[in-house]
Amino acid sequence: MKIKTEVKVGIIGIFAITIFIWGYQFMKGRNLVKHSSSYISVYENVNGLKGSDPVLVNGFRVGMVDHIGFAPDKSGKLLVKFSIEEDIPFAKNSTADIYSVDIMGSQAIRIIFGDSEELAKSGDTLTGTVGGSLTDLINEQMLPIKTKAEKLFNSLDTLLMTLNDILNPEFRNNVNELTANLKSSSHSLDTLLSNKNSKFNSILGNVDELTMKLNQSMTELSYILANFSSVSDSLANANIKSLANNLDQSLYQTRVLLKNMNEGAGTMGQLMTNDSLYIYLEQLTKDMDILMIDMKENPGKYIQFSVFGGNKKKKD
Fold first, then answer.
1. Contact predicate 82/54, CB 8 Å
2. pLDDT of residue 234
3. Which pairing describes strands 125-130 and 95-100: parallel, antiparallel, or unpaired?
4. H-type helices in the chain, by residue range?
5. DSSP reduced 3-state for 210
């Protein structure tokens, strides 16, 4: 049986279209031969996710995004339908997280496994989350570097201003004057040290003499300290307790003597407490005064003398 040319062309065309569709889907990452399961997630913002973007599990591609559209409830949320070709069991409370996979901003969905015992089935709705973009992460890491760079630039600006002040002609003149003064001071110091008759040498000589006298004084001081140590040892070895007892006994006897004198006991006590001696002495003093007055007024009664010789005895 001979096949017509038109039939051959039709068969070839159908085969070519089938190959084209399969190759197109394969280039998009979908394998029409393998069985796939479809899932849905709802997002406030898909962060640039588009159809045919990959679905990853632990960094391994297991599916792709099939469709992105608005939710029918007119809430403005986005429904993302994606398929997973591999027969990978995961919990129903797993999360479909949108994140950046490279610095160019390419997006993907990664499945973050949950801990539920119930497994997800084709057609289930998974919780959708949007992680930080790679650009945000880079900005977050670069912010401290940016801050440090700004501080560094401010420090460099301050340094340049300081260098500008240093290069100022007035400042250079001050530095030159300071250098000249230092040179002059150094020359004067050299002159002072090199002059043998200078006051500085005399001062050094006085210091040497003072040092020698201090050494001699230290020798005498050592001798004095040795004597003091010997006296301290003698005091330490003395019978201080016996001395204290004797002193206490002497003080007791003195207190008894003073008490007896106050009470009129003994001769000293009578002298201190009895006024008869005072009265007697007072009367004696008065009598002496009367006698002296009488001797002044009548000296002849008491003294007899002769102008021409010795005294003559009166005859009875």
1. no
2. 66
3. parallel
4. 5-27, 134-166, 169-194, 199-237, 240-263, 266-273, 276-297
5. helix
**What's the pLDDT tens digit per position in 239-256?**
666 777 777 788 887 877
pLDDT digits (tens, 9 = 90+) for 127-177: 999 986 666 666 666 778 878 888 888 888 888 777 776 666 777 777 778
Q: Which fold has domain 35-132?
A: Elongation Factor Tu (Ef-tu); domain 3 (2.40.30)
Please give the Cα distance from 207 to 185 (Å, whole number). 24
Give the separation between CA 249 and CA 258, rounded to whole angstroms.
14
Both structure tokens of 166: 């240093």
- What are the residue ranges spanned by the domains of the chain? 1-33, 35-132, 240-297
Q: CA-CA distance, 24 to 21, in Å (whole number)? A: 5
What is the tens place of the pLDDT at every residue in 260-271?
767 666 666 666
